[in-house]
Each structure stands twice: as structure tokens, then as C-alpha cells.
Specification:
Length: 150
């Protein structure tokens, strides 16, 4: 492997490995559950439990984001995705909340997958930094998520 200015690849961080393990556990758990309704109810409980585990700032934002998404676009199904709350349409992740503390980041993120229909020309945002969720931010989230599934 070619060297890049003397730096070497040291693998995934502990946070990234943890997220991958959580994702694998969620996949195994989903495979064991019975009916589609049981799986959906369990996924919703898992998301709410994960939000409840978050630190104060992240938890408050995640609760608001969850409420806005589930009320505004009820066809999106909450589920864990790499250990973070996410919202899927027909099993495909459309958007997700990533807490700041989980990855030791400066801010939480509301991200959108390539399944989101947010395309705008040759370049568009797929992630949004969140430092607090105000009424204005809630309105913007609701608009983005509705557009993402339109």
C-alpha cells in the first residue's frame, strides 16, 4: 500500500467499531422477530430506548427530531441504523440522527441517505449540523423529510 505523506491507516476508531457491532446486533435481532408488526413495534421501542440513553443535549434534540419526523411523515418507520435513530421507507433508510457524543463531534447531525429525494442540480446537502432544535429548525426538518420521500 502506498504511503501518503508518512501517515498510515490505523483502522476503524472505537466509536466506528461500536456502531458496526450495534448494527450487526440489530440485524440479528430483527431476523429473530415474528410478524412485520412485531418487528416495527420492536424497532420503534429500540429507537426510543436509544434516544433515552443519550446525554441531555443530544437527547432533547433527538426527541424533537423523532417527533417531527414521525408526525410529519408517518410512513417512515423508525429503526436503529448503526446504533443511531433512523427512519426508513420500504426498508430503505431515508434519514437519520447522529448524536454528537457518540462520535465525539462538535454537533449532532441530521443526515439523509442517497435514497432521499433531495437532489438539487449537481450538488446538494445530505447532512445538517444541529446545535438546538427550535421551532424554525423543526419546520425546516419537516420540510426536508417530506421532500425526501416525495
Amino acid at each position: 500500500m502506498a504511503s501518503n505523506g508518512g501517515s498510515t491507516y490505523e483502522g476503524f476508531s472505537a466509536e466506528e467499531r461500536s456502531a458496526m457491532k450495534e448494527h450487526a446486533q440489530a440485524q440479528k435481532k430483527a431476523a429473530r422477530l415474528g410478524s412485520r408488526a412485531d418487528k416495527a413495534a420492536e424497532a420503534r421501542r429500540d429507537v426510543l430506548a436509544k434516544i433515552a440513553e443519550m446525554g441531555d443535549s443530544d437527547r432533547v434534540m433527538a426527541e424533537r427530531v423523532h417527533a417531527v419526523i414521525t408526525a410529519g411523515v408517518p410512513e417512515l418507520a423508525p429503526k436503529l441504523w448503526y446504533g443511531m435513530p433512523a427512519y426508513a421507507l420500504d426498508g430503505k433508510i431515508i434519514c437519520f440522527f447522529q448524536s454528537a457524543a457518540k462520535f465525539k463531534a462538535r454537533y449532532a447531525t441530521l443526515g439523509f441517505s442517497d435514497q432521499a429525494k433531495l437532489d438539487e442540480g449537481a450538488m446538494w446537502a445530505a447532512g445538517f449540523a444541529l446545535t438546538e432544535v427550535t421551532a424554525e429548525v423543526e419546520a425546516r426538518i419537516a420540510e426536508l423529510v417530506k421532500r425526501a420521500v416525495a
